[in-house]
Specification:
The structure is a single chain. By secondary structure, this protein is of the alpha/beta class. The chain is built from 14 helices and twelve strands. It has a seven-stranded parallel beta sheet with strand order 8-7-6-9-10-11-12, sandwiched between helices. It has a five-stranded parallel beta sheet with strand order 2-1-3-4-5. Helix 1 runs parallel beside helix 13 and helix 5 crosses helix 7. The structure holds glyoxylic acid. Glyoxylic acid binds next to loops.
Length: 326
């Protein structure tokens, strides 16, 4: 008998086909919204599940999924999953590293440029019929070329963002838990500094770290006060890394100049004040959303599921300790 797997959200048909070659698959191609109870009922007899970042996989759910052996998240971040609880139960957890770095870095640059040059504000002005004439001082923005870029989190995505800064003749500072290898620093032309120095010197501060208890509100009121009043904050990492209420206050009172955001606390119910502020470019968590990248993410999650349930050895295992308990 084939193992049973659940796919919690709509995915690409070709990925579903791949899964069907190996498993008895329950899908959600209608993309219905399932609450925790729906999910629990559907997981009761499943060996594996392919999840999205909006599915909360916690102890209460796992209690009701006694056969579950693997959770394959279609994302590089996995803060939606209680990994420690999975590990305790011998359940493998996988993610999708590598395939979304470039698309996410591209989109980070869309936010940097959009926020610096007030692109969404300018478009709203034009669409709203306010553009009556050309003016020398109309919608003046900030220079990106030649500015200082501060990168918090210098993993694969942070490095991809840094490499793109070379083309804008920027000075790149970074802060990371560990200093990266000298050849990486050279390739990215990036200088390791303290968080305080990065905040004080950067014209743009961009976040590329995972969301963990350690990075919760890594940028809050006191960090925002350390930034330049002309600085722009970019978050395409995870909601919760920034204290959104503090950011709203900082944008409103001019503590910093602007922000470009793809992620928020409490998505999709972002802080309502963001919608009223002009000096913030807002996107609905789409940094990795190109056709090829999302397809590759879904394929990678599917291959993890196949490897986990056939050999017990998925390539992108985030909790190797779970194998000893399985
Ligand atoms: C998207 O947010 C991801 O973590 O891949």
């Amino acid at each position: 008998m084939k193992p049973k797997v659940l796919v919690t959200r709509e995915i690409f048909d070709e990925v579903l086909e791949l899964l069907r070659q190996h498993f008895e698959v329950s899908d959600n191609q209608g993309d219905a919204v399932w609450g925790p109870e729906d999910l629990a009922q559907r997981l009761a007899d499943k060996d594996g599940v392919m999840t999205s970042i909006v599915d909360r996989i916690d102890a209460a759910l796992l209690d009701r999924a006694p056969r579950l052996k693997v959770v394959a998240n279609i994302a590089v971040g996995y803060n939606n999953i209680d990994v420690a609880e999975c590990t305790r139960r011998g359940i493998l957890v996988t993610n999708t590293p590598g395939v979304l770095d470039e698309a996410t870095a591209d989109f980070t640059w869309a936010l940097i440029l959009g926020a610096a040059r007030r692109l969404t504000e300018a478009e709203a002005y034009l669409r709203g019929g306010q553009w009556k004439r050309w003016e020398l001082k109309q919608l003046l923005g900030a220079d990106v070329h030649g500015a200082t870029l501060g990168i918090i989190g210098m993993g694969r995505i942070g490095q991809a963002v840094a490499r793109r800064a070379l083309g804008f003749d920027m000075q790149v500072l970074y802060w990371n838990r560990h200093r990266v290898a000298p050849e990486v620093e050279r390739r990215c032309n990036a200088t390791f500094v303290s968080k305080e120095e990065l905040l004080a010197r950067s014209d743009f501060v961009t976040l590329h770290c995972p969301y963990t208890p350690e990075t919760h509100h890594l940028i809050g009121a006191s960090e925002l006060r350390k930034m330049k009043r002309t600085a722009i904050l970019i978050n395409a990492a995870r909601g919760g890394v920034v204290d959104d209420a503090a950011l709203v206050a900082a944008l409103r009172d001019g503590t910093i100049a602007a922000a470009g955001l793809d992620v928020y606390e409490n998505e999709p119910n972002l802080h309502p004040e963001f919608l009223r502020l002009k000096n913030v470019v807002l996107a609905p968590h789409i940094a990795s959303a190109t056709h090829s990248t999302r397809l590759n993410m879904a394929k990678k999650a599917a291959l993890n599921l196949v490897a986990a349930l056939t050999r017990g050895d998925p390539p992108d295992l985030v909790n190797p300790e779970a194998k000893r308990r399985g």
